[in-house]
Amino acid sequence: MDLPTANKRALSDKQVGVLLVAPALIIFCVITLYPLVNTVLMSFTNANLLSKYRAFVGLANFKSILSDPTALQVLVNTLIFVIVATLVPFTLGLIWAIVLNEGRKTSEFLRGLTLVDWIIPSTAIGFLWSWIFQGNYGLLNAVLTKLGMIHSNIDWLGRPGTAMIAVIVAKTWQTLPWFMAFLLGGLKAVSHEQIEAAHLDGAGNIRTFLSVIMPQIKSIVSVVLILGFMGSLQQFDLIWVMTQGGPASATTTFSIDVYTAAFNNYDLGTASAIATVWVIIDLLFVFLYVRRLKDDFQ
Amino acid sequence: MFERTFGFRVFYYTSLILVGFFVLFPLYWMINTALNPSPNVFSIQFLPLHATLNNFIGVLENGSIMRYLANSLMVSIATSFVATVVAAYAGYSFSKFRYAGRKSLMLLIMTSQMFPQVALLLTLYLMMKAFGLLNTYLALVISYVSFTLPVGTWTLKAYFDQIPNSLIESAKLDGAGQMKIIHRIIFPLAVPGLASTAIYGFVWSWNDLLYSLTLITSNSKRTLGPGLVLTYMGQFQSNWNSMMAASIVVSIPVTVMFIFLQRYFIQGLTAGAVKG
Q: ipTM of this model?
């Protein structure tokens, strides 16, 4: 920087603005934009992690995914996981936010304690729930046996149907506090006058909730649901720690599928093709999110 | 907010007990298991009647786990610092400057958190390999910064928006240069926003498993997530008491930060964060 001072001063406001945003822009281009484009391009090749050479294979990877029966299973798994593991924590988070919003001093403390579930690392959460669902001497089997609800231990993580339930429960436990924090913020901002007016008009609690409170927290609800769906779609850590996608692909969602194809089978072409399909599905959420955000932009 | 009808009371107390139990009991179970002597797997102990710190001592004396912890600490602090600086400049630029393409750029950066990370990873892995950055902390830090940038930029822009333009104008009249205005006037006024962003970056890196599992290939450089998975999941018979103790140990740094900086935390976490 041996520019004379006079020249430095001459930088217009516009130029300073662009210079300030440059580092973020460069990181965005190199770490997000280029990899995204390149992964899509790689889906038309037979790229392999162990080989330097790659050739254009057209739509072969996509055709082989479509003819692979596990692809359909992964699609179904991902949809089940995304929908259930978002709507359940959302609903429980909303109920918990309503409960905490009513209480006084203890709810500050409870809110803090609840958020601890969210803050601890996913690996620790995965360990904890693997232990609770453990097939021989886990907590759940012990409690259900004591209550007389089961007669022999269930290998929760080793059976296809129950393994999916287990990872959904763990994900619910992890994200419930996040939904709660957002929704509690929304509830606190609701106008009290309107609620009192509704009560004076004889509206019951359910009526007040639906026609006074809901409209006022609607925009927060839509943001958390979009972000929540995207978070579930991306989910890798918990599933990887608890089941690694098993047993027999029963909990393999798309992130696990892409990871396994690329880093266990070294098949970058197929992995990129699966990823590309999901990027396209993901674009729907991006579109919804961008439409939401645009209103907030100044 | 709600009238104390009989129906509401039923709803309130049922939810308080059921959701409260679901949210809090697993935390108790983690602590309880970690305090029970190990291995203690054949009968369930609901209370830590024979409480011992041996499991914790075992974790603290485990050289590899302590190395993973130190590695994670290093990566998380670096990410936190770089992400805050880059996001602050970008946020300030978006807030106080007007130039062509500004809005599209904001949208573009905001959407970058939405693309599947595993899709980006396929190419990032090859890039890091080509540049000789595989198995370096730099690879992790650059990736984490890019993931925490959207939320950080957004949070900080909101802070800068509240700073009146007249303050900047009068500083200019006093002869202050842009750099001086940014570092001496603007940033000190946005400390809560900077703190939120720094915390968010730290927690993000501390939590990651996918990228550290892939981009770090040697055991000595491994961070917490993959380190713990490889330590405990490879065993034929898992030592759950020790696993719970290790889980608590790795949760302590973020939990302590949370207790002292709760206000900034909640701001950062609710600013549009997705925990993937």
A: 0.90
